[in-house]
Write a structure and sequence with these properties.
The structure is a homodimer. By secondary structure, chain A is of the alpha+beta class. The first copy, chain A, has ten helices and eleven strands. Chain A starts with a strand and ends in a 6-residue tail after the last strand. Chains A and B meet through strand 5, strand 6, strand 8, helix 6 and helix 7 of A and strand 5, strand 6, strand 8, helix 6 and helix 7 of B. Strand 8 of chain A pairs antiparallel with strand 8 of chain B.
């Protein structure tokens, strides 16, 4: 049994435009790095090597919260020493908390001889999401651990479905403004019009069919959100311009990553993904908001 | 060019439980039969050989309304003589009006040398649905014309996606009570809870993934409707008993066919489908409501 493991846990895009709370996808880049060692004595010790000034007390750290949940399922006394280097900025909408939570339980599971199933690991890691946002959701956790595109058909009981997806390039822009997940959730209405819900489920069905049938045009047509995006996009300066410009530049489509403020766009070719990056950079330079961009791909591999 | 054609146009199951207004599936049986002849002079003449006493004036007959819509897209003067033998009882929830509308335009298109696309034919046939229920919907029309399972991603613009589906047996019971489509629509609330909408789109995504990945268990788990069924099933005596009994008998799941009152159940084997039929018959015999049952299969072929 190994005494130390290192995992690179990827950023994820939750919701995928029309699939609010049910769909998510893993990115090849950026990744957090987690190195974990078994300790002689029980308990969890967390060190951050990044400059984000995150709490290191286990119960207040998302990786710690996930590990504490995991420890409850382990009969023998176990201790972990965790070193976290975050490259996914907290609050970016790119699944930063999920990467820490998921990476921690995956690393710990490797140290324990892989005794837990992927579904178990998702359950433990959700304790980190609960700490981060107040809600146990799995739409970042599941793709982070399983790779590819995942469907959370149901949270209670947990029913995760891996969806085969064709290769895709992903361009992300992270405008450096703050949108808190809890705020982004509170501005949503508790009721939606049935006719909008119907349009939304047509798009979700279309997106799933497009992914599984490798129909890029159908994926593009289905990347439409008539319920969440009209409300949340108001919090993100430049959103409409990025979206319409990216489509004109040849992107299949895209929208808010998770609860924002990052915006992601899917493309069929690297060339288009680079053109979209240029366009995003131009828009935020002109608006005068600091930003960071990524050109990456859908990550197919599990953690 | 042929002077006479006969088409057998199948019954269809709209909604498929969680896919209200967007999903539908064709059945092998029952079918209406439509025989159509080109007339020397323009105009439409309709004869019904069944006993349903349906109107034969073209503008008041669903097949006639569909043909009148089609005629507007034909520059030359054309006339049709239509003979309709309905085996799908009007008001059964099995797409009776769609079978007549779809069958008529498909037959007419064959007589005209197949000049129209399937999408055109769906558009014409929707004029029949508009007459029947007041709403232009395509979730019976599309599977009737295209076979298999179809997704109506969007009505305006019309975007129909054929979904590959594995072989399935279908048991249908039609309790002989009247549920008008317009009534079944009016009792629906105009707003739904966001949390229910999210659960619904998880199930829709699961159903589409289950069909395309040929995962019968996932299909079964996804056949859940938390929005429409709780309201509409109240109109159908015996519904809860049929549903729970069918699951116990091994059916994958099922629910209201279209707006009812027919109930359909999907099964993996013929044996299960027959057991479900027996159970349905027992329930309606005991309740004392006349009924008709069908044991059939998903129809894969286009019309």
């Amino acid at each position: 049994m190994r005494k130390e493991v290192t995992v690179d846990c990827p950023a994820t895009v939750a919701n995928l435009v029309c699939g609010f709370d049910i769909l998510g996808m893993a990115l090849q880049d950026p990744c957090d790095r987690i190195t974990m060692r078994l300790r002689e004595e029980p308990g969890i010790v967390i060190n951050h090597t990044d400059g984000y000034d995150l709490p290191t007390e286990p119960a207040k750290n998302v990786a710690g919260a996930a590990l504490l949940d995991m420890l409850q399922a382990i009969p023998e006394p176990v201790g972990f020493e965790v070193e976290i280097t975050k490259n996914i900025k907290p609050g970016s909408g790119l699944g930063s908390s999920a990467a820490s939570s998921a990476g921690a339980v995956v690393a710990a599971n490797q140290l324990l001889g892989n005794r837990f199933s992927k579904n178990d690991l998702v359950r433990f890691a959700m304790a980190g999401e609960k700490l981060a946002s107040g809600v146990k959701h799995a739409d970042n956790i599941a793709p982070c651990i399983m790779g590819g595109v995942t469907l959370i058909r149901s949270i209670f009981p947990l029913d995760i479905v891996a969806l085969k997806a064709p290769p895709m390039f992903v361009t992300v822009v992270h405008p450096q403004i703050e949108v808190r997940t809890s705020d982004a959730r509170q501005i949503l209405r508790k009721e939606v019009l049935l006719k909008n819900a119907i349009r939304q489920w047509g798009n979700i069905a279309g997106l799933v069919a497009g992914l599984l049938q490798e129909d890029y045009d159908l994926i593009g047509r289905s990347l439409e959100d008539v319920i969440i995006e009209p409300v949340r996009s108001i919090l993100i300066p430049g959103f409409d311009e990025v979206k319409s410009g990216s489509r004109e530049a040849g992107a299949l489509g895209g929208g808010i990553s998770g609860s924002g403020p990052s915006i992601f766009m899917l493309s069929k070719t690297h060339e288009t993904a680079l053109a979209v990056e240029k366009l995003m950079a131009d828009i935020y330079l002109r608006i005068g908001i600091d930003y960071k961009t990524y050109v990456t791909t859908l990550r197919q591999e599990a953690l």
